[in-house]
Amino acid sequence: MTVQTGRRERKKAATRQKIAETALRLFLDRGYEAVGIRDVAAEADVAVTTVFSHFASKEALVFELDEDFEQRLTQAVTGRAPHEPFIPALRREIHALVRHCAAEDAAPIWHMIDESPALRQYERSMRLRHAESLAAAIAADPDLARGTTASRAIARFAIDAFSLSREAEDPEAVVDEVFRMIEAAWESTSPDRRT
């Protein structure tokens, strides 16, 4: 059964999308530092308070899919098929995120992020938050039976696979290489292998 999205929710989503697209266009045209929230609000024809009701900060405008990515990562663990190993499920999701973020049209955005100390800092804190959410999902799964340290380490490695891949010539090969190490590390923490 599909749940119908109400008119109000659709309107809010459309407004959020319009603000994000407007902000990104302005940032890429004029430079991230040269554009303020008031500029974004005026160009999107909304109030400044409307911008802040959808985005907590100027940096969040660039990382509009932040929450979606975080949910997708945790869903790779919590939403996988019964008895499906979680490492391949997580690898598939990281591959999907990498394909999205390594698309040709994403290059100017990553260049802008790399050039801005504020955006680089936001990205680092976002990656840590994603790793903590992913670690919590791993640790909460009774089928995985690992401790907090193993869950946190594997989650950080997975997030780092994404970060390393976006800088590589062959992003998918990097993800596969890192995930071979992740799988070996995960197996080494198996309760059956402990002495």
Automatic annotation (TrEMBL):
Going by the entry's taxonomy, the superkingdom of the source organism is recorded as Bacteria
Residues annotated to bind DNA:
36-55
Keyword Iron included in the entry's annotation:
no
Provide the HTH tetR-type domain boundaries: 13-73
> InterPro entries from the entry?
Homeodomain-like_sf (IPR009057), HTH-type_TetR-like_transc_reg (IPR050109), HTH_TetR (IPR001647)
Instruction: Enumerate the UniProt keywords alphabetically.
Output: DNA-binding, Transcription, Transcription regulation
Query: Record keywords: Transcription regulation included?
Result: yes
Write down what this protein is called: TetR/AcrR family transcriptional regulator
Organism, scientific name? Streptomyces longisporoflavus
